[in-house]
Amino acid sequence: MRVENIIIRNFRNIEILNQEIFPGLNIFIGENAQGKTNILEALYLLASGTSFRTNIDFQLLKFDESAFYIKARYSYNDRAINAELKYDLKRKKNVFINSKRTGQSNIDRLRVVLFTPDDLYLIKGSPSKRRNFIDFSLKQISQEYRYLIENYSKIIKKRNLLLKKEQTNTKSFKLVEEIFIETSARIILDRINLVNILDETTNAIFKEINYSPSKLKIRYALSFPVDSGKINLDILKNCLFKHIKNNSDNEKTRKKSLVGPHLDDINIYQDEKLARQYASQGQQRTIAVSLKLAEIIAFKKIKNYYPVFLLDEVLAELDESKKIKLLNYLLGADFQSFLTAVKIPGIDTTNAARFLVENGCLKRKEQT
Q1: Contacts of 200 (CB under 8 A, 6+ apart)
Q2: What are the C-alpha distances in Å from 14 to residues 27, 70, 135, 339?
Q3: Which run of H or of E encompasses 26?
Q4: Of 35, 47, 28, 29, whose CA–CA distance to 10 is shortest?
Q5: Exposed (0-12), middle (13-18) or buried (19+): which is 227, by Cβ within 10 Å?
Q6: How far, in Å, CA of 42 to CA of 7, rounded?
Q7: What is the pLDDT of residues 201-227, one digit of tens each?
C-alpha cells in the first residue's frame, strides 16, 4: 500500500496542503510546533477513524474553522483508492471510499503502522500497551477480529455487572458465560497466531538494526493455565471453562472477571531473560523498534501487501548509531514510510524525499 497524494484542509494548523508523495521514505523536517506530526495524524485518522493524540474531534479543527477535510489517493494490489474523511461540527465525521460513504470495516481503508516516542516504552510499559499493540494490528488485518474485540468489550462489561449484582445463578449469566468463553478463546487464538509470526520475524530485524548477537523470543502469556502441549480453539475453551469453575468463588468475592484476554500479556525475552526486567533501556528501545518493523512484515505475510509506516519524532529518542541504522533500514525497505524529525543525522538520503514544514505549510527540499 502506497500513498500517492494527500490533501488536508483546516486540520490543526494546516490551512491547505496538497502534496504528491514519494513511494519510499518521506522525511518531514522542521522545528517543533510547525505541523509535522499533524500530517501523520491526518493519515492515521483517515486509516483508523481516531486520532492518536486526542479523542475529541473538534480539537482537530483549525482555529476559527467549523470543518476539516482529509483526502488520500493510494494504491495496493494494483488497485487505486480514493479515501476521504469529512468532519464538521453539525454532521460530525464521515468517511468515503471512492466517493461512497462507508464505515470503519471497509476492506479498502488505508492501513498504517504508527510508531511514536510512547511506543519506545512498549517493552517495560504496562501489559495494556502490549495488548493494544497486538489488538490494533489485528483489527487492521482482520474484520472478524475487529468484531470479536468490540463484542468482547460489551460482554466483559455485562459479565462484571452480573458479578457485581451477585446474579451468577441466573440464566442470563449462564448465557453471558458461554459467549464470554467462546469469544475469549477466539481472540486469544488470533493473538497467539500473530505473536508466533512476530516471533519468527523480530529476531532478524533486531540483529539488523542493532548488530547484536542477542536472541529475542516473543510468547503470549495467558491469564489462566493450559494443561496441554498444544493449543487450539477447543483446548482454550475447555481450559478457560475449568479455570472459571475452579475460581468462581474468588470472582464472586471480588465481583469482577479475573480471567480473560483483557488480562493477558505478551512476554518478550532477550537471551532467555524477560526484557522488561533485564534488558537495558537502550536495548528495550531497540526491541520496540524491531517489534514495530516486525508488525509491518507480519501484515505483509498475512495480507500480501504492506501497510504504510508512520514514525513521529522517534529519532530524537535514539542514540546516533541507532538513528543511522533505522534510517538505512527504511531507505532500503519495500514499504512506504513517513518520518518526522527536527533534524536528520549525517546520512545519505538520496533515495528519500525531504520536505520542510513551516507553520503548517509543506515545502519540498532538494533530495540530498
Answers
A1: none
A2: 18, 11, 31, 18
A3: strand 25-29
A4: 35
A5: exposed
A6: 10
A7: 998 899 888 877 889 999 999 999 998
Least-confidence region, from 13-22, 153-162, 210-219: 210-219
CATH number attached to the domain at 1-111+307-368: 3.40.50.300
Examine the pLDDT at 309 and tell me if it is beyond 80.
yes
Q: Length of the chain in residues, anyone?
A: 368
**Crossing angle, helix 143-164 and helix 127-141, to 10 degrees?**
140
pTM: 0.92
Q: Give the architecture-level CATH label for domain 121-304.
A: Up-down Bundle (1.20)
Q: Are 237 and 222 in contact (CB under 8 A)?
A: no
Measured CA to CA in angstroms, residue 58 lies from 62, 72, 201 at distances of 9, 21, 40
Phi, psi dihedral angles at 17 (to 5 degrees): -140, 130
Domain chopping of the chain, boundaries: 1-111+307-368, 121-304
Measured on CA atoms in the order 279, 285, 286, 290, is the torsion positive or negative?
positive
Contact 35, 14 (CB under 8 A): yes
What is d(CA 294, CA 266) in angstroms, rounded to the nearest whole number?
15
Task: State the cell numbers at 100.
Answer: 461512497
